[in-house]
Design brief:
Pfam families: OsmC (PF02566). It is built from three helices and six strands, in the order βββαββααβ. It is α+β, with helices and mostly antiparallel strands. It has a three-stranded antiparallel beta sheet, with no helix packed on it. The chain has a three-stranded mixed beta sheet with strand order 4-5-6, with helices on one face.
Length: 138
């Protein structure tokens, strides 16, 4: 896997993924930025949510669950001192489908958290990671 990063100015950077997708990262005005894009640590959270959601949806579909929508809210806390690593991350899944089985959803969440999601397993080295979910009927 490869990626590239180009400094734009101030604390603004343009990142390009190995697959050719670009993203602007910037800081808050009080930190010297112009708020032109998400902070790098915000992208880390979003990427982790994407990673675990990918797993959960894939597992549910393989289990023949009729999942129609997946939304994840994330709350995180960081250390007060440098390096300001994540110390706590909570993922709240809202899954919509037809007759989704709670035990299958719980298994999908556990498999992602403990076996498949590289991002959350890596962040779990410094952060307590938790998750919960609600099921909504389509």
């Amino acid at each position: 896997m490869k990626a590239a990063l180009q400094w734009v100015d101030g604390v603004c950077f343009m990142g390009e993924s190995g697959s050719g997708h670009a993203v602007v990262m910037d800081g808050a005005p009080e930190g010297g930025g112009r708020n032109l894009g998400p902070r790098p640590m915000e992208l880390l959270l979003l990427g982790t949510a994407g990673c675990t959601s990918y797993d959960v949806i894939t597992i549910l579909k393989k289990a023949r669950q009729d999942v129609r929508d997946c939304r994840v809210s994330i709350e995180a806390a960081r250390a007060d001192e440098d390096p300001k690593v994540f110390t706590r991350i909570h993922f709240h899944f809202e899954l919509t489908g037809r007759a989704l089985k709670a035990e299958v959803v719980e298994r999908a969440l556990s498999l992602s958290a403990e076996k498949y999601c590289s991002a959350s397993i890596m962040l779990g080295k410094t952060a307590e990671i938790t998750h919960d979910y609600v099921l909504r009927e389509a």
